[in-house]
Design a protein that fits this description.
Length: 603
């Protein structure tokens, strides 16, 4: 199938735009590869330190030339998605010994749960944790003793941080090993209904807690299609997971077999063998376009509009929101997974999952087939599906048709002709909106604004009955990366949904973020310039008329004279201290804008 013209044109534009920085990056990676790991060149004392606790692998490390695998883990047992990683290092070490190799845990990285910190002060550290994770990997791999690496991480900021680091050590082959989603519990729709009833005061906290515990009930990733599961999709579309491995549940024989195979595969790609495949060659411009196509076709998390830009720049590739917008205009939406539908990721996987999607998108010319992957053989390898049979891992051709077209459709009969995300521009700046769950009739809102300086103010106004009548655009500003770390504002979703459900036209405009679970209410988010930079949203006053239109891509204030006003300022002192926020002052002072990745690493 011929590559879609827009896919080809956007890819070529990215390649041209990135040429100077990409070339410089690849030169650095080739230089690092030519030097190789310094293991053999360490002093005797250095080697003794490196191998002192290696147990049965100590002699192999000291006297042999076997491949040595570094394990970077985001394990902790507060995150359900990461709890299964507890015993992965031992399984990985045992697996690579079978092929004559060795492995060590190079280091651990922090991993926080946005679900725990939603609406809390800790959420203001969430975005910055991505860059802190990348720095932590830098420390872990600085010993320069490994021939390849595996990365154990799943959730929101963890995978992007690990990707930034993997590209920094791009001369090393890298395989990402997932933990898989928890089994299905209380449906996401029932959980959302209980949250709305609690916001209305119709049920008490005991009923709310009961529903939440029934939804989040065991080890594994949360089952809705938020940022964590969008990350897992990206790792397959971009060739860093083994095929169809993202959504295999924890604690199964197949999950363990895939973990063992991922470790062996990583070592097989090292420079010691004949299939040297460094991650810098896997994550090229085409791979990032494939990732964006997957984001659009699945209606994935808006957080990746920030993370993908930062991830790409770590490899010298320059993306911008216009690239995303043009790809969204042509890529069809093929999946309906909560919050864009009733199904969860287990249902999606059972219906054909990522293998079916890749098959459809490749066949329709929306994906580059010739990217390098950790599976070898290009993206076509990702049409295969793993099975655990007779005590061993086998691969078979995946399904050629959707097994449930209410969840997953072919490219010839999509849920909608365009992707799940839209770019909005106008005199209020530039923002983005997740439209895959927003009904057509709700994608345009023209209404007076109510302005708030944090989400608690907005929630208090709702509880006081101040937002009960009329159409309204809720503006929550001074929530950008420089102001307070750009927290997600997902705790506003219940009351915004209630307002929309009772017939009000309502939209949100903010320089903050919404969760990957953002859904039915039109939300223009990530607005740049942010209010702290004097962005136009800092000039709005209650009653100004604003138009938010995802169909035409407009983000406009219609009231005359607004642009002549001086931007307001805000007291941000409450964001400076507590739950570790004082430790991240350097990040707030040096972070780039949302449309350049909201990163402290510059551009």
């Amino acid at each position: 199938m011929t590559l879609n013209a827009t896919i080809a044109a956007v890819t070529e534009r990215i390649i041209t735009r990135s040429a100077p920085t990409r070339s410089a990056y690849l030169d650095r990676m080739r230089s690092a590869a030519s030097k190789g790991p310094a293991r053999a060149h360490l002093s005797c004392s250095g080697q003794a330190h490196a191998y002192a606790a290696a147990g049965e692998d100590q002699v192999t490390l000291a006297t042999g030339n076997a491949g040595h695998l570094g394990i970077v883990t985001a394990y902790n047992d507060m995150l359900s998605a990461h709890q299964p990683f507890e015993d992965y290092p031992q399984k990985i070490k045992a697996a690579v010994r079978e092929i004559g190799g060795t492995a060590q845990v190079a280091g651990g990285v922090p991993a926080m749960c946005d679900g725990i910190t939603q609406g809390e002060a800790g959420m203001e550290l969430s975005l910055f944790s991505r860059d802190a994770i990348a720095m932590s990997v830098g420390v872990a791999l600085s010993h320069n003793v490994f021939d390849a690496a595996v990365y154990l991480g799943v959730c929101d900021k963890i995978v992007p941080g690990l990707i930034i680091a993997a590209q920094t050590f791009g001369h090393l082959p890298s395989v990402f090993i997932p933990a898989g989603p928890m089994t299905s519990g209380l449906s996401n729709d029932e959980k959302a209904m209980t949250r709305q009833k609690f916001a209305k005061g119709e049920v008490g906290r005991d009923e709310l807690l009961k529903a939440e515990m029934a939804a989040y009930h065991g080890p594994g990733t949360c089952t809705f299609y938020g940022t964590a599961n969008t990350n897992q999709m990206l790792m397959e579309f971009m060739g860093l997971h083994l095929p169809s491995s993202s959504f295999v549940n924890p604690g199964t024989d197949l999950r363990e077999a895939l973990t063992r195979e991922g470790a062996k595969r990583a070592l097989s790609l090292s420079a010691l063998g004949n299939d040297y495949t460094p991650v810098c060659d896997v994550l090229d411009e085409k791979a990032f376009v494939n990732g964006i196509v997957g984001l659009m076709a699945t209606g994935g998390s808006t957080n990746l509009l920030i993370h993908l830009i930062a991830m790409a720049r770590a490899g010298g590739i320059i993306l911008d929101w216009q690239d995303f917008a043009e790809l969204s205009d042509v890529v069809p939406l093929l999946a309906r997974v909560y919050p864009n539908g009733l199904a969860d990721v287990n249902h999606f996987h059972a219906a054909g999952g990522l293998g079916f999607m890749i098959r459809e998108l490749l066949g329709a010319g929306y994906l580059h087939p010739d990217t390098k992957t950790v599976a070898g053989g290009g993206l076509g390898e990702y049409l295969m599906e793993p099975f655990y049979e007779g005590g061993s891992l086998t691969w078979k051709e995946g399904t050629e048709k959707s097994l449930n077209e209410a969840i997953l459709r072919p490219a010839t009969e999509p849920f909608q002709e365009t992707g799940g995300l839209a770019r909005l521009t106008g005199n209020l700046g530039t923002g983005v909106m997740k439209v895959s769950a927003v009904a057509e009739e709700n994608r345009t809102v023209e209404a007076p604004v109510r302005v708030f300086h944090d989400q608690d103010e907005a929630k208090a106004a709702f509880k006081a009955g101040e937002l009960n009548e009329g159409d309204v655009v809720i503006v929550v500003r001074f929530q950008g990366p420089k102001a307070n770390g750009m927290p997600e504002l997902h705790s506003m979703t219940p009351f915004l949904s209630i307002m929309q459900g009772r017939g009000q036209k309502v939209a949100l405009v903010t320089d903050g973020r919404m969760s990957g679970a953002s859904g039915k209410v039109p939300s223009a988010i990530h607005v740049v310039p942010e209010a702290l930079d004097g962005g136009p949203i800092a000039k709005l006053q209650d009653g100004d008329l604003v138009r938010v239109d995802a169909t035409t891509g407009q983000l406009e204030v219609l009231t005359e004279g607004v642009m002549d006003r001086a931007p307001v300022t805000a007291d941000l002192s409450s964001y400076q201290h507590g739950v570790g926020r004082e430790l991240f002052a350097m990040f707030r002072a040096n972070v780039t804008s949302a449309d350049t990745g909201a990163t402290v690493f510059g551009v």
